[in-house]
Each structure stands twice: as structure tokens, then as C-alpha cells.
Amino acid sequence: MSGWEAIRAEVLSRIRRRDWPPGALIPNEEALAQEFGVARATVNRALSELARAGVLERRRKAGTRVTALPVRKATLDIPVIRAEVEARSQRHAHRLLARARQPLPPALAARLGAPAGADYLFLQTLHLADGRPHVLETRWLNPAVLPDPAPDFATLSINEWLVAHVGFATGDIAFSAEPASVEDAAALGCAAGAALFITERTTFTDVAPITFVRLAHAPGYRLQTLL
Amino acid sequence: MSGWEAIRAEVLSRIRRRDWPPGALIPNEEALAQEFGVARATVNRALSELARAGVLERRRKAGTRVTALPVRKATLDIPVIRAEVEARSQRHAHRLLARARQPLPPALAARLGAPAGADYLFLQTLHLADGRPHVLETRWLNPAVLPDPAPDFATLSINEWLVAHVGFATGDIAFSAEPASVEDAAALGCAAGAALFITERTTFTDVAPITFVRLAHAPGYRLQTLL
DNA sequence: GAGTGGTCTAGACCACCTC
DNA sequence: AGGTGGTCTAGACCACTCT
After folding, report:
1. What local confidence, expressed as pLDDT, does residue B167 receive?
2. Angle at B210 between CA B208 and CA B213, to 5 degrees
3. Is residue A6 within 8 Å of residue A32, measured between CB atoms?
């Protein structure tokens, strides 16, 4: 191994070995470049990666420190549901349970930054994995992003239509646990009150809100990632 | 704005505008460098960031494509519990409920890559926020990583001792929803069967397993992040 | 074999921040 | 005011992988 990855490994090793304990200032880029016999840019690359991982804290003039109370950063992959199901070699299908124009509930209007009571498209979709209920998707969609006539979401999943036609957007995502409502339970085929893993996402373009979606995952769902 | 961030923004804009639709091959680095009047390294930096975000897919010789079915990547911060509580201006405290040497349950031994029935330290800690139950932490700890004599975890939280003395490690993390067990309910002061948000982590150093920890969060907990 | 991205270098300038 | 990291350049070599 050589190059910036080798330097990252060596620095990490010195941190683990407590040569550079938590909170300590480490030598500056030029000194390390000399020590390792590489260009400063190579050291910069290695240290920047460690800073991104939360292991180091870097500030101009102040130098580079080992993070005292490291905030571990985990990267989650949020796949399209169909891709997630098919990655487990299961067959994916979806059924459109509801589709209606509805005024946006006030709480959601606030989260999306939309006018209260705005006319939104309400969609409820049940995703199936190998024919069994997998995820109940409840979505409010800004009709302004839709073409006229609107696509038939009975055949093409909404989410896939969005990623293909609206493109990349910003937003936020939240995870929680909720007891299954009567509606959740009916759709997912579980008992009311069962512990469900809930994902909630809001997405925006630069100019307008796009959608709010709540995913209620069938019992047993796990979201997993490497640290 | 100028530099690599400007180029990233312009490329992203062309993708959103569908000048470069999903799946399309975009010009190579040298062509873009000429067009924007910058060095190839600057284009490389911009495109690498977009690839890291999952917007582009890059392969030598094959070139750079707009991701067809983008896998959104969300970065989660996993703070030390005390820091998380204090960040909300609440007072943190913890009580050590149990501490015992116990053989590692077979299921956990497999996950940690430890010999079945290995002698581990079992610790159960209740974290309080403003005096109210916040998280029930259930942990198995490899005694080999502890000094002799072992620290008194009644005063210093285990997790903080670990981050300060064992240092950075690899591992994995999983999130799920579970009904509260009788034990969970008693500790957290909620009803048995209530929907709890569960975090499970396993961590290793290069050479040995360190710990498995299960965090049962009190009802209402949300894990949130930006996309 | 050849085209593409990944990385490295040596030097430079600059933004930022602590002192 | 001056030290530090952040970025850019122009050029080079290399690793990978598609054809």
C-alpha cells in the first residue's frame, strides 16, 4: 500500500496507539509531508478524509487536532424500494391503495414550507416483497411537479417516476418507531399497535417543495450499515 | 462562487435540467476542464464529490455516467449519549443497573466473531435526560480491552471510557423497531409492548472484538438527518 | 491497445483564524 | 501579523477496464 491511503492508515494507527491522544495537536501538513517524503497535497488528502470521518478536526491557523469526543458518522444508503427488495432476490410489486386531491394537513404544510391547505396529491401505495406486505407508503405530492396529464402511478412506482423525472433534490430524513395504526395494521397484515419502523422524508428542489413521504415498514425490518 | 464547488453546482444543474439525463455519459474530465477553463484536477474534485454523493458513477475507461436509479446517501451522526442529551440543553445522568461476568450468548458470539460462551462483561445502564428515562443501554464488553483494575463505570459512562481509551474502531450499526420487553418497560417507564426505537452496534479493533451494545430509546425518539 | 479516471508532484496564492 | 489549511495549476505516470 502506498499513497494517501497509506498515510491515512499510519495516522489512524498513531491515534489508536495513543501516540496522538484525543485532543492532541498533530504536526502540520508540511512537517508530515517531509516525514513521509510526499507532497503536501497527498498529506492533505489523507487528513481531509480523516476529518470527514470525524477522527480529526481541522482549522486554519489552529492546526489539526484528534477529536476528543468523536461523533461517529455512519453513511446510510436509502435505495428505491424496488431495488432494495430485488437486491434480496425477492419479487417486488406494488398496489395503489388511494389517490386523491386533498388539502395538505397544516403540520405537513409547515414542514414543507407550503401554504396551509394547499391542494396536494395524496397517494397511498403498498409495496410487496414476494407477495407479502413490505412497506406502506403514504405520500403527499406537490401537483406542480407533475406533467399534464399526470402519470398513472398504478403501473410505475411514484418514487421511481420522481427520481427519473424530478431529479436530485435536497431534504431531510427521520427514523422513528411507532405503534401500528389501524390503517397500518390492515395494510401490512400485522396487529394494531405492533412496533413499526418508520421512515419520514421531505424533499425540495431549489424553488419548490416536492413531496413528503412516510414509509411504515412491516415488523422485522432492519436498517443496517457499516460504521 | 468559483472553484470546484461552482463546477459541482453547474454539473448538478445540468443533470437536474436533464441536459444530461439519468444513465447518460457526460464529457470526460479533460473536455470539461477546457470548457470551464480550469485544470483537470479541479474537475476531478467536483465530479468525485458528486460520485461520492451517489449522483454520478465513474469508471476508468468507461467514463462518467449520471446514476440511473440513485441510491440516496444520508450521513448520520452517532454522538455519545451524554453529548446528545446536553446538546438539547438537558441534564444527563446515568445509573448502572447491572454489572456481571457472563458467558456471551451464542447469537452475539457469532456476530462478534468471538468463541461461543466466552466470558464477557455484561453491563446495563439507564441514561436519564432531565431526570427522565431516555435510553436503556445493554452491553457486552470484551474484558480483554479493560485495564486491571477495571474502571468504575458507575461514575464514568462506559461509552465515554471506550472512546477515550480504546480509540477508533470499525463495526456496524443497525436500526429497528421492537416492542418493549418487560425489562425495557420497567427501566424506561413505558408500557410493555410499546414501540421502541432500537440501535444495535458491534465494534471491533483490527485484532479483537470490543463490544456489542443495544440501545432502547424511550418512546418518541427520532433519529434525524439531512439528505 | 487505448481511453478514462485516480493519484501524485512542486509550486503558488489565498481565506481564515488565532495570537 | 503570520501560520495554517484549502484550493488551484500544469504536468506526469499509472491502474483499470472496455473493445
Report:
1. 67
2. 150
3. no
Judged by DSSP in three states, A226 sits in strand
My answer on whether omega of the bond before A149 falls inside 30° of 0, hence cis, is yes
User: For the ranges A154-163, A200-209, B124-133, B205-214, which has the lowest average pLDDT?
Assistant: A154-163
Q: How far apart are CA B112 and CA A16, in angstroms?
A: 20
Q: Which residues contact B166 (CB under 8 A, 6 or more apart)?
A: B145, B205, B210
Q: Residues of chain B whose pLDDT is less than 50?
A: none
The answer to whether the C-beta of B37 is closer than 7 A to strand D is yes
Q: Which nucleotide is nearest to A33 (CA to C1')?
A: C9
B-chain residue closest to A72, CA distance: B78
Query: Which bases of strand C sit closer than 7 A to a protein CB?
Result: 2-12, 15-19
The domains of chain B, with CATH numbers, are: 4-66 (1.10.10.10), 81-217 (3.40.1410.10)
Output the pTM of the full model. 0.88
Alpha carbon dihedral A138, A150, B66, B28, in 10-degree steps, equals -160
Q: How far apart are alpha carbons A125 and A82 in whole angstroms? A: 13
